[in-house]
Automatic annotation (TrEMBL):
In the C-terminal section; belongs to the NAD synthetase family. Belongs to the NAD synthetase family. GO terms for biological process: NAD+ biosynthetic process. ATP binds at G301, L302, S303, G304, G305, I306, D307, S308, T408. The active site is at E58, K125, C161. The gene is nadE. CDD domains: GAT_Gln-NAD-synth (cd07570), NAD_synthase (cd00553). Transmembrane segments: none annotated. This is Glutamine-dependent NAD(+) synthetase.
């Protein structure tokens, strides 16, 4: 029976408790499918791992984040039907699942405990987050109560995600007698998130003298990627078990419960490099966006440059070579080296590869525009036309064959507007949207350690859009090593121009970069979404007005 509040210590004798962390990939809005996944996983956890408790991620019944699906009138009916289905299965292990529950007039982000076909406990998340990509206060009220309940004779506290990051919920559950706390999460990935989670869990478990089971969602949802990495820390703050990041699975942990619930130590996965982790995040994001949205294949423009090379490799690793088509669309400024390298990349990865010259189309457009353009000098208009013709070709292939167009712009380019609206920005998903150019180079080198698919000179030669004779990116921009540092200070850390200059950067460079970031907000609003890997990506994280009179400086 569930109780909220204190649990007397004499109720616990020495016993074993097996908890299975269900680190799974759920589809937002597919309540029946997600319910099937919960039932199937619980059965497998019982049969394969003899589970006493199976813990699922936050809001697993709806998927995360459900956003305005939470406002649909039939939400409550659908969630109740799902919970009734799970109860009707009379599954042997206790189940802790995440679902939105209405109590009175208010909706709560909730954890639900089901034992023997009966709901024995409900917990309402106390701290719905409202920062970065989170806007839970738009939908959810704040819970007030503590849930510490006996499950298989062990006092277990239940919390949800952000409750771990705030003071109160863990402390209150421990004070109410919990020897083990389960925490349900939908915590999105960024490059150092797992390290921050571990630091927090170490402190919370040690300070409260309680073991913590941290179960996280895995998979891609629009721009967000959830990396799993579910963990168990013991009451002294020692990491005892960790599931691999970006992998689905059922991960059992044995506890010996006496005065404390001590997890049995497991071998821990090797710490991945930053490049390996980011690459897995990109692969996961592409795979789930394509598959969950029902696309049969993807198509992308292959230029012979490093961005499209890395995008192609990610696409093939996510979907397999038979679902990827690469198209080279040369023009008079395209170098022979680019043609050779693009073909080499396509051959190395085994994808369908086409070459369609845009020269005839360009000439036809320029003939049509010869009247209004008479007396003017060539400028970026003619350069942008090349990019837009390529966009038309790719979108035509997309329409005809049902392929999603992958764009190839990186975060550095998106930040300063070094891209063409309705040209190289035309498409449905930008794989590198949140990846700075300097990291793109590192990812290319990393991918070549797995198998050599990107020619070395693609990595070493100066980047160029090849829209004009002898063009190089650094003719228009500071070097990427400088540019990315300035962008990090301004976009991700909100430094002012003066503060960035004080870090040792040239004022002319700083003010120019900031101006480019500010005036190109209108482009970014029209750009496709892409995988978020930093704490502040363009999209849900950073919402600046297009029309504004803010002056940069202080």
């Amino acid at each position: 029976m569930s109780v909220s509040g204190n649990v007397s210590s004499h109720q616990v004798s020495s016993k074993k408790l097996r908890v299975v962390m269900a680190q799974l990939d759920f589809l937002v809005g597919d309540i029946p499918g997600n319910t099937d996944l919960v039932i199937d996983a619980t059965r497998r956890a019982s049969e394969e791992h003899q589970a006493d408790i199976v813990v699922f991620p936050e809001l697993c019944i709806t998927g995360y984040p459900p956003e305005d699906l939470l406002l649909r009138p039939s939400l409550e009916l659908r969630v109740n039907e799902a919970l009734e289905r799970i109860q009707a299965e009379q599954l042997e292990p206790a189940i802790v699942i995440g679902a939105p529950l209405r109590h009175g007039a208010l909706l709560y982000n909730s954890a639900v405990v089901i034992e023997g076909g009966t709901i024995t406990g409900r917990y309402f998340k106390r701290f719905p987050p409202n920062y970065q990509v989170f806007d839970e206060k738009r939908y959810f009220a704040e819970g007030q109560d503590v849930l510490t309940m006996e499950i298989r004779g062990v006092p277990v506290g239940v919390t949800v995600c952000e409750d771990l990051w705030k003071d109160g919920p863990v402390e209150d559950a421990a004070a109410a007698g919990a020897r083990l706390i389960v925490n349900l999460n939908a915590s999105p990935y960024d490059v150092d998130k797992q390290a921050r989670r571990k630091s927090l869990l170490e402190r919370k478990s040690r300070e409260n003298r309680v073991s913590i089971v941290y179960v996280n969602l895995v998979g891609g949802q629009d721009e967000l990627v959830f990396d799993g990495g579910s963990m168990v820390f013991d009451h002294s703050g020692v990491l005892m078990a960790e599931a691999p990041q970006f992998d689905e699975g059922l991960f059992p942990v044995e506890f010996i419960c006496e005065h404390h619930c001590q997890p049995v130590s497991q071998s821990l996965p090797e710490e991945p490099s930053l490049e390996a982790n980011v690459y897995k995040a990109l692969v996961t994001g592409v795979r789930d966006y394509v598959n969950k949205n029902g696309f049969r294949s993807v198509v992308l423009g292959l230029s012979g440059g490093i961005d499209s090379a890395v995008t192609l490799a990610v696409a093939v690793d996510a979907l397999g070579k038979d679902r990827v088509r690469a198209v080279m669309m040369p023009f008079r400024y395209t170098s022979g080296m680019s043609l050779e390298d693009a073909e080499a990349e396509a051959l190395a990865l085994g994808v369908q590869y086409d070459v369609f010259s845009i020269e005839p189309m360009y000439d036809a457009f320029m003939a049509t525009l010869s009247g209004p353009f008479e007396g003017t000098q060539p400028d970026t208009t003619e350069e942008n036309l090349q990019a837009r013709l390529r966009g038309v070709l790719l979108m035509s292939l997309s329409n005809k064959f049902g392929s999603l167009v992958l764009t190839t712009g990186n975060k550095s380019e998106m930040a300063v507007g070094y891209s063409t609206l309705y040209g190289d920005m035309a498409g449905g998903f930008d794989v590198l949207k949140d990846v700075p150019k300097t990291l793109v180079f590192r990812l290319a080198n990393y991918r070549n350690t797995l198998s050599q698919v990107i020619p070395e000179r693609v990595i070493t030669r100066p980047p160029s859009a090849e829209l004009a004779p002898d063009q190089k990116d650094e003719d228009s921009l500071p070097g990427y090593d400088i540019l990315d540092q300035i962008l990090n200070f301004y976009v991700e850390r909100d430094f002012s121009a003066d503060a960035i200059v004080a870090e040792g950067f040239d004022r002319v460079d700083v003010e120019r970069v900031i101006r480019l970031v500010d005036i190109n907000e209108y482009k970014r609003r029209q750009a496709p979404i892409g995988v978020r890997i930093t704490e502040r990506g363009f999209g849900k994280d950073r919402r600046y007005p297009i029309t504004n009179g803010w002056k940069s400086g202080k």
